[in-house]
Write a structure and sequence with these properties.
By secondary structure, this protein is α+β, with helices and mostly antiparallel strands. About 30% of the residues lie in helices and about 15% in strands.
């Protein structure tokens, strides 16, 4: 009887797990991850248009994060409505159908400025998307806009005097807006952490995907050089540059990687919430002194009164303070 009871218990446990894996529509749509959003859209529990509008509204409510260089409202909503119409018409849809994503502003998106975070390239508008972006679009993704970054990706603080929507200058950490979001893919990291997007693309030469993902409670992948095409990406070092996917969870990063490479897409059961995302920062009191999902042994601080100057783009008013010394030092780094 014991083996039979064990089998029955296991069967019931597996059935319960299967039921628990069903994605439910949340009260706040911006809490969705990439895979969950895709499933709800395919199941017609959520429309791409309402999800896109929710992210745009959240961006409007958080200008002090300095997340975007270009927020493409009209085209994003138009693409979302087309995605809904295609789904209603029974057309074949991709793995990211109708899912809004963001792209770092050194990676080409056709028809949108590609500044690489420097005013010198403000007028450059590519006519073709980078291959990594095109793979996402071909899978049905909706591009919300181009995210802020350390100028020319040459730094890790995300401090950029050329592009900001509010003071203090620099992309802010959504868990504590007195602190940095990391860089150089600061805008994508902050957008995901603040739930302005479920995922997106950064780029990594020396930590530019991994650092902001770590500082904003998300996940990011620096793939092996050559796994993704380097075409359509403003370069620093061809031997080191690579696009990298970023999202709330490793499962969502794996989904984006599979779409870009054309590899096997994770099954819904394994791709949905195989890890718990860091809680939304809006669910906790906004901090003025400390915050974030985890406090590292060093802390970055920025002078809120900092004003634009003609200093080199590699210099920043952000300093690093250790717990063992009160002395501060300038931080330098490459994205």
């Amino acid at each position: 009887m014991r083996p039979r009871s064990t089998i029955v218990a296991l069967t019931l446990a597996l059935a319960a797990a299967g039921c628990a894996s069903t994605v439910q529509r949340p009260a706040d749509l911006t809490q969705l991850g990439v895979a969950d959003a895709a499933r709800l859209i395919r199941d017609k529990q959520v429309t791409s248009a309402e999800l896109t509008q929710a992210y745009l509204a959240r961006a409007d409510a958080n200008p002090d994060l300095n997340v975007y260089i270009t927020l493409d409202r009209e085209r994003a909503l138009a693409a979302a409505r087309r995605a809904d119409a295609d789904l209603a018409a029974g057309k074949t849809v991709g793995h990211l159908h109708g899912v809004p994503l963001v792209v770092k502003d050194n990676t080409h998106v056709a028809g949108l400025p590609n500044t690489a975070g420097t005013p010198a390239l403000r007028g450059f508008v590519p006519t073709e998307s980078a291959p990594a972006v095109q793979k996402l679009v071909d899978a049905g993704a909706v591009i919300l806009g181009k995210t802020n970054m350390h100028e020319l990706a040459f730094g890790i603080s995300g401090y950029n005097e050329g592009f900001f929507t509010a003071r203090p200058i620099g992309t802010r950490n959504p868990y504590d807006r007195t602190r940095i979001a990391g860089g150089s893919s600061s805008g994508t990291g902050a957008a995901i952490g603040a739930r302005l997007a479920p995922g997106g693309l950064g780029s990594d030469t020396g930590g530019s995907v991994r650092i902001p993902a770590a500082l904003t409670g998300g996940a990011g992948l620096r793939p092996t050089i050559g796994r993704y095409s380097q075409d359509g990406v403003t370069p620093i070092a061809h031997s080191r540059d690579t696009v990298g996917p970023m999202a709330q969870t490793v499962a969502d990063v794996a989904l984006l990687d599979a779409v870009i490479t054309g590899g096997r897409v994770p099954s819904p059961r394994t791709s949905t919430r195989t890890s718990t995302p860091t809680p939304d920062p809006s669910s906790r009191a906004r901090s003025t002194s400390s915050g974030g999902p985890a406090r590292p042994w060093w802390r970055w601080t920025c002078r809120p009164s900092s004003k634009p100057t003609t200093r080199s783009a590699s210099r920043s008013p952000c300093t690093r303070r250790t717990t063992t010394s009160r002395r501060t030092s300038r931080s330098t780094g490459r994205g």
